[in-house]
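Appendix B: complex inputs.
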Amino acid sequence: MIQSLNEHNREDLQEALSKGGQKLTPQREVVFAVLLAQRDHPTVDEVFNRAREVMPGLSLATVYNCLETFVGCGLVRQVNHERESTRYCPNLAPHAHFRDKETGQVHDIELPPEVMKSLRSILPPGFDSEVIEISFLGRAKANDSLNSN
Amino acid sequence: MIQSLNEHNREDLQEALSKGGQKLTPQREVVFAVLLAQRDHPTVDEVFNRAREVMPGLSLATVYNCLETFVGCGLVRQVNHERESTRYCPNLAPHAHFRDKETGQVHDIELPPEVMKSLRSILPPGFDSEVIEISFLGRAKANDSLNSN
DNA sequence: CTTGCGGTTTAGACTCATTCTAACTCTTTA
DNA sequence: TAAAGAGTTAGAATGAGTCTAAACCGCAAG
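Resulting structure:
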């Protein structure tokens, strides 16, 4: 179940928010806690439903707002696959995503620096890239524990 | 301007369609010609507008249908960036996409086989991937001629 | 205090890409 | 010529996400 944030995580949140000129609010705490509690790349709706168990008055618009704020503060990444609903991921380490064709589950795949480098190297001169998104589509055989980080 | 398909391209289209159990229709020819004429990763709307110059009665639904058919036959790839409108690309060679933050333009980036290989190698055992999507976000300095293929 | 202010939250209206539906057309097969 | 089947069409429906305007809240100034 969704716990409230521990001291450590609350401080991280607090700090990242204030760096971005934002405040820590009860809603933001709950939404952040939801993301940390179950790192399965939930959609906004999923976050909304989970958060409401803990804070029933929370509105969907606020969940959108909170998540956008987190993305702006670099606390969370958006994960898009084709045009499906955007998913959210609190894993900050550079990583790729693997989407299971059958279950729809999204798994994080560690991205070693040398692979990042070889990717950057394929850019022709004049192309400067800040963000690289890599996503695999396929099947992951069993091994439930491998998801996320 | 949009030309009608030359013999060679019409045959390719014809063949790919019939392999997928589909027929060559005037609408499909026009839509395909639009994609080949300007390889700038147009959205459905852009394809629609260009195609109407040549076939004014064409409907938007048909453009959606044609593009979906082409994707099904492997003639064309969809390109998605975040949740923006889907774009279409008739470049069949394996390649990544580079999206210019400022202009919004999408450029094709050639993907050498050894980079593909190193990417596949980061998948943990049990993960089998058929499709790998790679997209860069950044700025491309000038050099208009480098776009697409 | 209590008033005012800026940032946050809220419900509901709105947008817009995409999908669906049902009617229509065209071509082929019987 | 009729019936069947594929493809096309206009417009309605869907649904994720955004916008708007009102309510709320914590806090600093009076």
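The interface with chain B takes residues 78, 80, 82-83, 86, 96, 98, 107, 109-112, 114-115, 118-119, 122-124, 126-143, 146 of chain A (CB under 8 Å).
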